[in-house]
Amino acid sequence: MTGLVQVQLDLSNPQSHLVHVWLEISSPQAQQQVSLPGWTPGSYLIRDYVKQLEGFKAVQQGLERSVRRTDPSTWQIDCNPDAGPLVLTYAVMATELTVRTCHLDQDHGFFALAAVVLEVAGQRWSPHRLTCVVPNGWNAFVPLPREATGSWLATTFDQLIDSPIEAGPHQSHPFEVLGVPHRWVTWFSDPACAVWFADRYPTFFEDVQQVCLACCRLMGEPRPASSDYLFVLHLLDEGYGGLEHDDSTVLVYGRRNLETSSGYRKFLQLVAHEYFHQWNVRRLTPRELRPVDYSRASVIPTLWFAEGVTSYFDQLLPLTAGLSTPQDYFSDLGEDLSRYLLTPGRQVQTLRESSEEAWVKLYKADAYSASSQVSYYLKGAVVALCLDLELRRHQSSLSAVVQQLWRSHGRHSRGYGESDLLEAFEGQVTGLAGRLEQWLTDVDDPDCSGYLLDVGLDLEPEMSSDPWTGMTTGLKDGRLVVQRVLRHSPAERAGLMVGDELIGLAGQRLAKPEDVPTHLRAGVDQPLLMARRSSLRELQLCSDPPQPKRYKLEPVANPTTAQQAAQEAWLQQRVG
Fold it and tell me: How confident is the model over 381-424, as pLDDT tens digits?
């Protein structure tokens, strides 16, 4: 049974941090079920949004209807299907400021609608009309077609909750990309920051436009995938993140980062990452997400392609847009390769496992996670780099494979599986599917150094001058405590755990991290480390020889003509 679902969000009392929801089902079922999603696409963690919902009521013909909760996020309502519309009312507490939650105060409102709007059983593919009641002087920005009445119309429930809302007294900045309208909306947590930002980055909107154009060129497309695109930025003192949608993205970035020499470049990389997702992820989609099941986690073995390939390209796109230099790119790529090679968990968790376990590991990382897991964003980008450079040995490229998959799957809304990816790579280079399969299922590192030599780059370790203990420490409530203990490290062998308080060393009181000696020798002069967990105890901590503290990516001293040509083509993302 289908019909129109109408949703009204009342933000008129922002100091309460509550958004009041009115939802009308025009054609209810006799036993109408409704449920609130447990997660939002692009952020793979069951978030139990229902914990913020309160005051649920159901009314038909002025009479309150019987409601029975069938699970924590689902209600069943006894209705008379011939008695007219069913109206549901409830409120949602909006106090968490992230790209995947809701936040409402006197300055602005932001809503990830998966956390707000109930899914009506039997009406998922019905049109949904959205209305927002906002305080005087506020505007609401929604990436949906707007009706003459001021409402917005989504063709389905999926389109509705894929449409984040930003509301407040701010304005939008319009611009076009290849004839497609775009809007940019910024909420400054500190209003004074607006003038600072405009003065410091006067070409910002032109730069964003160039990044968008670079994405279209990379995909070989004459227009963006969206026909009307909305950017929302929350510029805070500190922060970093983004969430992609079909026709919009929400970004969080820190002003303090923008004050650094590399901060603006990395901000443009974030813009590129989320904008490129309108192709890779949003429309070129793993088959496990077609359609999305909002009530449970789905094992998605190809998240490494969705996020890792996008992460690889996001560093290149500002370069191909003319907004950074090759030296900038080498520096940023070197940082990522260094993070990867200094992550011990890469020798425990495979890339496929990292993708499959996103719901229970990546988004639930703790102080021990670095020893047991590796991010599919990070290793996915490393594998993407190796795939691109391997393909270039055979006069192809990673962008050619992505374009091919876009034509075969993305344009036609066909979800892909891992076999489709392997087939696409094998179609470009015989034997590459087998190599990729090995990179996905083994914990051995790809030959990054060998591939980088193709384009005239050396990846070399920079050794620490200090011996290695495998632990980091910090101050907590005036106490010196262990913050991380790496697996197979001297600190682990000594029996230290995260949270242990370090008291003293060879009679010396420890008060700050730098008090911990970097070289603790074995033998008769071995100091006694005094630590407290539930009781005071003595531990023998023997450091190991120095290890790499970082890896640096530098041009080779005397590149060959072939290396120079290969590097130029790679950095410009052309073949040959």
Answer: 999 999 999 999 999 999 999 999 999 999 999 999 999 999 99
Tell me the per-residue pLDDT of 302-321, one tens digit each, with 9 for 90 and over: 999 999 999 999 999 999 99
Q: Which residue spans within 61-156 are E strands per DSSP?
A: 63-64, 67-71, 74-78, 86-93, 102-104, 109-111, 119-120, 128-133, 139-141, 152-154
Q: Dump pLDDT digits (tens) for 200-259.
A: 999 999 999 999 999 999 999 999 999 999 999 999 999 999 999 999 999 999 999 999
Contact yes or no for 274/246 (Cβ under 8 A): no
Q: For residue 158, what are the CA distances in angstroms to 6, 25, 111, 242, 293?
A: 14, 16, 15, 19, 11
Encoded tokens for 224: 């963006």
> Are the C-beta atoms of residues 405 and 427 closer than 8 Å to each other?
no
569 near 561, Cβ under 8 Å? Answer: no
What is the pLDDT, as a whole number, of residue 523? 42
Q: Hey, which bits of 338-454 come out as E strands?
A: none
d(CA 24, CA 170): 30
Dist. CA 62–CA 16, nearest whole Å: 27
φ, ψ (nearest 5 deg) of residue 378:
-70, -55
Q: Are 163 and 142 in contact (CB under 8 A)?
A: yes
**Two structure tokens written together for 538:** 């003595």
Is there a contact between 110 and 165 (Cβ–Cβ < 8 Å)? yes
| CA 173 vs CA 184, 231, 393: distances in Å | 5, 10, 43
> Can you tell me the distance from the alpha carbon of 390 to that of 371, in angstroms, rounded to the nearest whole number?
29
Q: Which amino acid is at 78?
A: D
